[in-house]
Automatic annotation (TrEMBL):
It comes from the Bacteria. The complex comprises the extracytoplasmic solute receptor protein and the two transmembrane proteins. It is found in: Cell inner membrane. The keyword Transferase does not apply. Pfam families: DctM. It comes from Leptothrix cholodnii (strain ATCC 51168 / LMG 8142 / SP-6) (Leptothrix discophora (strain SP-6)). Its main location: membrane. GO terms for cellular component: plasma membrane. This is TRAP transporter large permease protein.
């Protein structure tokens, strides 16, 4: 009955059009009422405590870094470097999108920001070259969701806070899976692009490549600073976010000179608005997380999944299918915040490595950003490219299936995640 009241009130609130943050608060109030615990002070205290977290400071700074990089020319130089390296291949502009997405993922950690930059820069080029617009949009959308996997990742920060798991370990564990996601859509694009008879751009000379590399060097240094700093304990993930934002601001204003002082206000306001949405979601979800614990819903979930507890692979498969179903109707951040307190006790009871599960969980949620009908990243591509949602959905299907294949492969072969993660951590 407790689970029914929580889920029923949450889904009912969402069905009538309430924003997810308010729906979470409403479901929390309903659950408090059912448990005879209603107290406005407890509600307010949990909302405040939900946002009062030092690790969560990484979110606004990574968002700010992403905004600065898009406006300050770092993203454009990354795309130009990828263009000189692989643009001449058959279907080269698609490979440019994939390479650029992997590089941008190591800079901002935001799927929406990276996808918007890629769609604005590359989608018109791909259409002019003769590529099918829906297919090109689908490729860019699937490439954009690599951002929450390759560090630094806002998704890992939120999961690490909600699950009390080391964010640094999550960052390092996400490198190989993120690259595998990029490789999977590259292989898919190779076969898909064969159907299109398109003349690729001329091959860039080594001189042009060197110039592009030199122009992008300042941008490429950032992920090296972040990963090396985390590995050797120079700074925490939160401090890494500050370093990323300050470094991007310095490069954009002093080195490249593309970000002018009069643009700073707009950049800061844009980052603040996005951050406010995420932080309010986190704060609202902490009410539900507290009540989930009080109502002992995790133990009920463990009982429900009892038949799978002796087989970690079957348990992970069951959870992954559950997350896929939720991801079709809910955005990434609320899914993480709602499901993490419920699933983590199950994962610990089954003896599954929380870092390994965190990588799979965030991968699944990232793919959820391109699964209809919600598909936030699909909406970004449709908006930037002035396309219908149905067209982008059709174009993304082969790439989405390829990324699901990688995720399930990691379920069956956990050493692909755990071995590189331990090696990087040591």
């Amino acid at each position: 009955m407790t689970v029914f009241i929580f889920l029923g009130s949450l889904l009912a609130a969402m069905a009538i059009g309430l924003p997810i943050a308010y729906s979470l608060l409403l479901s929390g109030v309903a659950l408090m009422w059912h448990l005879d615990l209603f107290d406005a002070q407890i509600l307010a205290q949990n909302v405040i405590n939900g946002a009062d977290s030092f690790p969560l400071l990484a979110v606004p700074f990574f968002m700010l870094a992403g905004e600065i990089m898009n406006v300050g020319g770092l993203s454009r130089r990354i795309v130009n470097l990828a263009l000189t390296l692989v643009g001449h291949k058959r279907g080269g502009l698609g490979f440019v999108a994939i390479v650029a997405a992997c590089l941008l993922a190591a800079l901002s950690g935001s799927a929406v920001a990276d996808t918007a930059a890629l769609a604005a820069l590359l989608l018109p080029m791909m259409v002019r070259a003769g590529h099918d617009k829906a297919r090109a949009g689908g490729l860019i959308a699937s490439a954009g969701i690599i951002a929450p996997i390759i560090p630094p990742s806002i998704g890992f920060v939120i999961f690490g806070v909600a699950a009390n798991v080391s964010i640094s370990k999550l960052f390092l564990a996400g490198i190989v899976p993120g690259l595998l996601m990029g490789l999977s859509i590259a292989v898919t694009w190779y076969f898909v692009s064969k159907k299109e008879n398109i003349t690729p751009p001329p091959k860039a000379s080594w001189a042009e490549r060197i110039v592009a590399l030199r122009q992008a060097t300042w941008a490429l240094v950032l992920p090296v600073i972040v990963i090396v700093g985390l590995k050797f304990g120079v700074f925490t993930p939160t401090e890494a976010a500050v370093v990323a934002a300050v470094y991007a601001l310095f490069v954009s204003t002093v080195i490249y000179g593309e970000l002018k002082l009069h643009q700073l206000h707009e950049v800061f306001v844009s980052a603040a608005k996005t951050t406010a949405v995420i932080m309010f979601l986190v704060a609202a979800a902490m009410v539900s997380a507290w009540l989930i614990t009080v109502a002992d819903i995790p133990s009920k979930m463990i009982t429900l999944l009892e038949p799978f507890m002796d087989n970690q692979t079957l348990l992970l498969l069951a959870i992954m299918f559950l997350v896929i179903a939720v991801g079709t109707a809910m955005d990434m951040t609320p899914t993480i915040l709602i499901m993490t307190p419920v699933l983590m006790p199950v994962i610990k009871a089954a003896g599954i490595d929380p870092v390994y599960f965190g990588v799979l969980f965030i991968m699944n949620n990232a793919i959820g950003l391109i699964t209809p009908p919600v598909g936030t990243v699909l909406n970004v591509v449709a908006g930037v490219g002035k396309m219908k949602m149905d067209e982008v959905t059709k174009g993304v299907m082969p790439f989405m299936l390829a990324q699901f294949f990688v995720m399930f492969m990691l379920v069956f072969f956990p050493s692909i995640v755990t071995v590189p993660a331990k090696w990087l951590a040591n």
